[in-house]
Amino acid sequence: METRPELFEEVRLYKNPKERERYDNQANLFAIVSTLEHLEKAYIRDCIKPNEYTSACANLLAQYKIAFKLVESDFKTIEDFLKKFKVHFPIAVARIKEDRPITIKDDKSSSSKLIAQTVSLLITLMDKLRLEIKANDEIQPDLRELIDVMNRITNLPSDFDGKAKLQKWYSQLQQMSATDEIDENQSRNLLLDLDSVLYAFNHGLF
Length: 206
Hints:
By secondary structure, the protein is mostly helical. It has helices spanning 17-44, 50-69, 78-84, 90-98, 111-130, 136-151, 161-174, 184-202.
């Protein structure tokens, strides 16, 4: 029987690095929306605790915002994206449109709402740093908003060391001009501090 080597060759969807990045971005978005759909169903079936659901949902919504920005040149809405690939995630789409976990009421002063906002801002900042965004005018506004939201959480202890860490970074950024960039070492240390604060919020360690 004749062997055809070409049948065993890897089939690539992309022709160059730019196309590969495009497909990777689409795959990341698909994974996030699919995970959100399954998370919503798990909560409906009472397979996950409310506090765990709230944290996971807030994480996914924050990741979604970053992921969609990377594909919005090809898709105007998330519905367009899902229609293109012939998939149906209605619960996830509804959650995306509400932009908050179902456990959180539409009340800006509620503690749960503020905690979800904090988690979202933490992930946004961490994603920017991982994308090697280091300009002061890209980082400082988000950090300022993060500190402001954290300060409004009434059950957050005044001695929570995460607040002190973030305030120290904010003070450093205030001394820099808008176009200045933090260096690689500063970026890694800030990412580490943000991750420690996120861990504390996700595990209720305050």
